Amino acid sequence: MKTEISRVMRINPFIVRLYEERDNMTSSDPGDAMKISLMDRSLYFKGLLLLIRKDQVLEEEERALMMRIGRLFGFEKRFCQEVIDEILTNKHVVDEPPFFSEPAISRCFIQDGLKLSLVDGHIHDSEWQWLKAVAAKNNLDQDWCEALLQKTLDQAEGDLEDELEAERFVWE
Predict the structure, then answer these.
(1) Has residue 16 been placed in a domain?
(2) Helical spans, DSSP H, in 26-102
(3) Which residue range(s) make up the domain with 57?
(4) Which residue in 21, 28, 169 sits closest to 106, CA to CA?
(5) If pLDDT is split at 50, 70 and 90, which confidence band does 161 have?
(6) Is the residue at 26 inside a domain?
(7) Which of 36, 76, 140, 151 has the highest CB neighbour number within 10 Å of its CB?
(8) Opening angle at CA 148, ends 137 and 118, nearest 5
(9) Looking at the domain assignment, is residue 11 inside a domain?
(10) pTM
């Protein structure tokens, strides 16, 4: 992980700005709501649960964040509590990176995944590798992912914003 992070730290700030500008061009206003289907909401929630499972520890902050996302997506509270409680021990859950219907949803997922990973103070290599696998499956640029990792780590030195990308969604 250290070599990966040190490689990311050498990324030219110009590249980071280039990707940010490209992302801004795909949406007229970053605050605009994006439509998300029930299937994509389910994949998003399950994907974040699988991410939590990567370090085999369920922190209280992770639980709270997942409950918040479940509420945002309109999932029943009891359902969310049960799947969160069982994610570390449920052997029937297939650990496969989700494929979303829109690249914008996958980018939001990666951003929220990094925030969730940092809840315990650091990103475990298994979490980062899994997020990169999600990015690859969704045809996201790996340089964008590495730039996003660096930006997230830089923000973590202060405080990560409380805002989740999931809050930008409205469902069909």
Answers:
(1) no
(2) 38-53, 60-72, 77-86
(3) 34-171
(4) 169
(5) low
(6) no
(7) 36
(8) 95
(9) no
(10) 0.79
